[in-house]
Design goal:
single chain, alpha+beta, Fumarylacetoacetate hydrolase, domain 2, 2 domains, 15% helix, globular
């Protein structure tokens, strides 16, 4: 199933303001709204996950909306805590980044491929939804880059989760653009600040429950202004999803709704000579096979 969070484009101010959730049609051209009367400003689709974990039925659907009548939001508009992110998790990207001069995790030749997962985070405030503007902060950074990432949403939480049991803890998948200010990433010798600017975590267009996808064969693509920049597959991950869940949960309890972005493949702007950083007016489009398309424009802030 595909679940989306959205607002109506038309109606009274109160009707337009309310965040709703619904079931995306098989054709992905309309959404059947679930009968939830409260405003789901922060939880979004996690309202449905919580019902499922409590073994309660999903609400009945009410009105069906065409996509043109609604504004899609990030499926989890305000995550309950930071998004877990994975650095250098595709072989070719690890090489392009490790030799770029921007990688503080590579101290000598041969270090480009990590021996263990590299984990950092992005704050909830960086999340935006489909179609929302990615803001290039004027006089703050002139090296803003894109990164398409297959993203996991945890269902059943836990600590000390083994690889053998890890997939039992996955509820759904979505797409994230791990937008990055490369100059800040280099200057501060770590990744949090340059990854965490406001609007630097587009998410969507919805979530797809784990039963619908073969996680070992999911295409991962990114276009900038219709130019294909990144094209890979989840089978090329250095550390697969069970390994990531095992690593993170070894010392940190994972909770329902936690988000893990699994890393980006080769083809980021930094990897070109000269680099192809994003500029105002650019359109970045991500496509995760079996999930959907996430598109966001760039503006100067």
């Amino acid at each position: 199933m595909k679940f989306a969070a959205f607002r109506l484009r038309h109606g009274t101010p109160a009707e337009i303001e309310r965040v709703r959730v619904g079931l995306v049609s098989t054709e992905q051209d309309n959404i059947a709204e679930y009968g939830v009367s409260t405003n789901l400003t922060e939880a979004g689709v996690l309202t449905l996950l919580n019902l499922q974990l409590a073994k309660q039925p999903l609400p009945a659907t009410t009105t069906t909306h065409s996509l043109s009548a609604i504004q899609l939001l990030a499926p989890i508009p305000r995550p309950r805590r930071n998004i877990f992110c994975v650095g250098k998790n595709y072989f070719e990207h690890a090489k392009e980044f490790g030799t770029s001069g921007f990688d503080s995790s590579t101290s000598k030749p041969g270090d480009e491929i990590p021996k263990d997962p590299i984990i950092f985070t992005k704050p909830p405030e960086s999340v935006i939804g489909p179609g929302a503007n990615i803001v290039i902060p004027q006089q703050v950074s002139n090296a803003v880059d894109y990164e398409v990432e297959l993203t996991v949403i945890i269902g059943t939480g836990g600590k000390g989760i083994s690889q053998a049991n890890a997939m039992q803890h996955v509820w759904a998948y979505t797409a994230i653009n791990d937008v990055t200010a490369r100059d800040w990433q280099q200057r501060h010798k770590q990744w949090f600040l340059g990854k965490s600017f406001d609007t630097f975590c587009p998410m969507g267009p919805w979530v797809v429950t784990a039963d619908e996808l073969d996680v070992n064969d999911i295409s991962v693509k990114c276009w900038v202004n219709q130019e294909l920049r990144q094209s890979s597959n989840s089978k090329d991950l250095i550390f697969n999803i069970p390994k990531l869940i095992e690593t993170i949960s070894a010392g940190i309890t994972l909770y329902p709704g936690d988000i893990i972005a699994t890393g980006t493949p080769a083809g980021v702007g930094l990897g070109f000579k000269p680099p192809k950083y994003l500029a105002p007016g650019d359109i970045v489009k991500l496509e995760i096979g079996g999930v959907g398309v996430l598109e966001n424009p760039l503006v100067m802030g």
